[in-house]
Amino acid sequence: MQFNSIQETLNNPITQSVIAAFIYAIIIFMAKVFFKYIKAFGKVFNQKSLFTTGIVLFTIYIFLIALLFLKNTISAEVSLSSLFGVSIVHIIFLYRYIYKLRKIGIIGSDLHIKGGFSYLQKIKASKTNFQFLGVGARKLTINNSEFEKMIERVNKNGKRVQLLLCHPNSEALRFLALRAHKSPDDYSHKVNSSLEYLAKLVLEKDYGIDIRFYHSNNVHDMPIFRIVIINSSYCLVSYTQFNDSSHEGELMPQIHFFRNTTEDTSNSFYFAFSTHFERLWKKSEDNIWNPQDFLIKNKK
């Protein structure tokens, strides 16, 4: 009687799910211990290795279950209950991996800016504030209709749009243009075009836009990061590849950071990059752009 009771319990799908999950959890744990053992001997180990191992083990497990089912070694109930239990463990495993990223403020990424969270989407998403660190803001100003709507929303909220750019007369721009086999004034002209448009928004429409120029006497002085901070809670970061101007940055990868207001923000990358922007902004106090002076000089 007792044996029959144990057998009935083992044949129960819920029990089978728990057993399968337990076995799979042990396998994952052993893989983790194995990688830590390798690390102790100086081999390459990182979260990606463990993540990849989890995917491989999960795939192998599914393949074995499917093979045993097709050969009538196990029933459909056993197959489904096993897959259910293993899936739960794998979901927990993935959640822990994602949780670690979110804990430090990482919530997403794009292989390319153009195919991900584009500059147009950044503009549309901005409602309460907008801060930008880049070269000339051309990728923002070419979307002039949405760009102006964004400025109106931010101004209505009592904030001013902040743009931290490269000075159009910078020798670094001339150097980059020549290295890209373009006219020496090509990049400077693009920055000036953006500034001319922005000057008209400030003087003719009374838009609240603050622009400063970071120090960029040569390429090595230019900030390597492109930073966009939206609504004081979302930060998008990519980087500038100064030795390749073929795509002008739109094919570079991009990481999404967020500000977790319920926890200590100093432990997140959002804090790091927003602080980086604020420091560069403060350092550029002696390079504040005057739209009226700019238009007068450009008319000459």
What does this structure look like?
The protein contains eleven helices and seven strands. The chain has about 300 residues and is of the alpha/beta class. Strands 1-7-6-5-2-3-4 form a seven-stranded mixed beta sheet, with helices on both faces. A hairpin with a 3-residue loop joins strand 5 and strand 6. The termini are far apart. About 25% of the residues are buried.
Q: Secondary-structure map with pairings?
A:
Layout: H1 2-11, H2 13-40, H3 47-70, H4 76-103, E1 106-110, H5 119-125, E2 130-133, H6 138-141, H7 144-156, E3 161-166, H8 171-179, H9 186-205, E4 209-214, E5 225-230, E6 234-239, E7 254-258, H10 269-283, H11 291-299
Parallel strand pairs: 2-3, 3-4
Antiparallel strand pairs: 1-7, 2-5, 5-6, 6-7
Compact description:
The protein has about 300 residues and is an alpha/beta fold. It has eleven helices and seven strands.
Q: CATH superfamily membership of the largest domain, which one?
A: Endonuclease Chain A
Q: How much helix is in the residues? A: 55-70%
Determine the oligomeric state from the structure: single chain
- Count of domain modules: 2
Under the CATH scheme, the architecture of the largest domain is 2-Layer Sandwich
CATH fold annotation of the largest domain = Endonuclease, Chain A
The largest sheet is:
7 strands, mixed
Mean pLDDT: 80
Shape: elongated
Low-confidence stretches: 40-45
List keywords for this structure.
single chain; 300 residues; alpha/beta; Endonuclease, Chain A; seven-stranded mixed beta sheet; 11 helices; elongated
